[in-house]
Design brief:
Blueprint (H helix, E strand, L loop, with lengths): L7 E4 L5 H10 L3 E4 L4 E4 L4 H9 L5 E4 L2 H13 L3 H9 L2 E4 L2 H9 L6 E2 L6 H8 L8 E5 L6 H9 L3 E5 L2 E4 L5 H11 L5 E4 L2 H14 L2 H10 L2 E4 L2 H9 L6 E2 L5 H17 L13 E2 L1
Parallel strand pairs: 1-2, 1-10, 4-5, 4-7, 5-6, 7-8, 10-11, 12-13
Antiparallel strand pairs: 3-9
Length: 287
């Protein structure tokens, strides 16, 4: 079994930071946690969701993240309207991007009629929605930490009467010291790997680095000295936009697969000692 052999692994995950750190420890690594994102509820959008569903204004509801559903359902429950929302969704065509929103819906006895194929990016969502008749119909699009402009515009161009809800926004954590410490550790070569589990983590890390005047040093360190792991193609694409080539991307876009792929990567590095450890300047290894 591949291990991490006491290597120091920086984790930028926020919601599941404890779970991810446990996975790293199980494989013999040393986790360095630096949450990069706060999810701030957007209370102004809740009424659009609640009233629109209960009044049956939507023939199609599109959920892009599990967190979005949980946030909306928690607020519906707080207002004593959860049963109404669940009943309304039973009479609405529901589309989900990826497994996480599906899992949340199942807890409430709901099943989506429209689902996406892997790797569950915007393109797969648009493909899945292509077969839905949305012209002159009410469509609810539930965003995540920022609005998915591409999906919204595609639906409007097809004639949908679109209403958009953003249950939460992505923000930098109030305490930036852990992120600052990770950036300085990358620059001074005191880490073995940095793992990115969402594209917003990439942006926030470089935003903090820019404030420190260390953008170039961070990119250089990630490209030359530190193994970089990206959970999936969206995350990997954002890293490339920021000038960083990821080394590891798992075949399945989830955290457990990312940790396993990282351990397998290090095993290959250890087996090839004597040559170049990193072999930079290539696409991410798909393990």
């Amino acid at each position: 079994m591949a291990t991490l052999s006491s290597r120091r692994i920086a984790l930028l995950e926020s919601r599941h930071s404890g779970d991810l750190a446990t996975l790293v420890r199980r494989l013999g690594g040393e986790p360095v946690s630096a949450p990069a994102v706060d999810e701030v509820p957007c209370h102004n959008d809740f009424n659009v969701f609640l009233d629109g569903l209960v009044e049956r204004r939507f023939s199609l509801a599109i959920f892009q993240t599990g967190t979005g559903i949980r946030t909306l359902f928690t607020e519906a429950d707080r207002r004593g309207r959860l049963a109404q929302v669940i009943d309304a969704l039973r009479h609405t065509t529901v589309a989900c991007r990826g497994a996480k929103p599906q899992a949340v819906l199942r807890r409430y006895g709901l099943r989506p009629q429209v689902t996406t194929a892997k790797p569950h990016t915007t393109q797969e969502l648009l493909h899945a929605l292509a077969h839905q008749d949305v012209a002159e119909r009410g469509v609810l699009l539930v965003h995540y930490g920022e609005r998915n402009v591409e999906v919204a515009e595609a639906l409007r161009q097809r004639g949908a009467r679109l209403e958009e809800v953003c249950p939460y926004e992505w923000a930098l954590p109030d305490n930036l010291e852990p992120l600052t410490a990770v950036i300085r550790a990358v620059v001074s070569r005191r880490l073995d790997a940095v793992l990115f589990t969402s594209q917003i983590q990439c942006r926030h890390l470089f935003q903090v680095a820019a404030d420190l005047g260390l953008t170039h040093a961070l990119a250089t360190g990630l490209n030359r000295e530190i193994v970089v792991g990206a959970v999936g193609p969206v995350c990997a694409a954002r890293l490339r936009e920021l000038g960083v080539t990821p080394d590891v991307m798992p075949g399945a876009p989830n955290m457990a697969a990312l940790i396993t792929a990282l351990a397998e990567y290090f095993d290959l590095v250890d087996a090839a000692r004597g040559g170049s450890d990193r072999g930079r300047g290539r696409e991410a290894r798909d393990l």
